[in-house]
Amino acid sequence: MYLGVTPSVSCSSAAGNEFSLILDKNPLVDFVEELPAERASLCYCNLLCGVIRGALEMVHLAAEVTFLQDRLKGDAVTEIGITFLRKAEDRKHKRNK
């Protein structure tokens, strides 16, 4: 939402704990022309993984967020894989009367 793009969602797990966000256009790529040869392993857009993981932690969801495809590495799209590490616990809130 903050980047001005809407990802498509692809569920790739029968267990329902894993899915991918696919970005056809990644605005962060516009700021990088070409990675230097000595920095070819650098994942410039890994910032997005940290933002998503941090947002999920804020709502108490532990997840592993990784890049599966990156346009800077020559892929057609940017794909971010998200795997939830454990189920969210149902918490019952008690009211004091």
From TrEMBL:
GO terms for cellular component: endoplasmic reticulum; Golgi apparatus; TRAPP complex. It comes from Patagioenas fasciata monilis. It is found in: Endoplasmic reticulum; Golgi apparatus, cis-Golgi network. The keyword Zinc does not apply. It comes from the Eukaryota. This is Trafficking protein particle complex subunit 3-like protein. Keywords: Endoplasmic reticulum, ER-Golgi transport, Golgi apparatus, Transport. The lineage of its organism: Eukaryota, Metazoa, Chordata, Craniata, Vertebrata. Coiled coil: none annotated. InterPro entries: Bet3, NO_sig/Golgi_transp_ligand-bd, TRAPP_component. May play a role in vesicular transport from endoplasmic reticulum to Golgi. Belongs to the TRAPP small subunits family. BET3 subfamily. One of its GO terms (biological process) is Golgi vesicle transport.
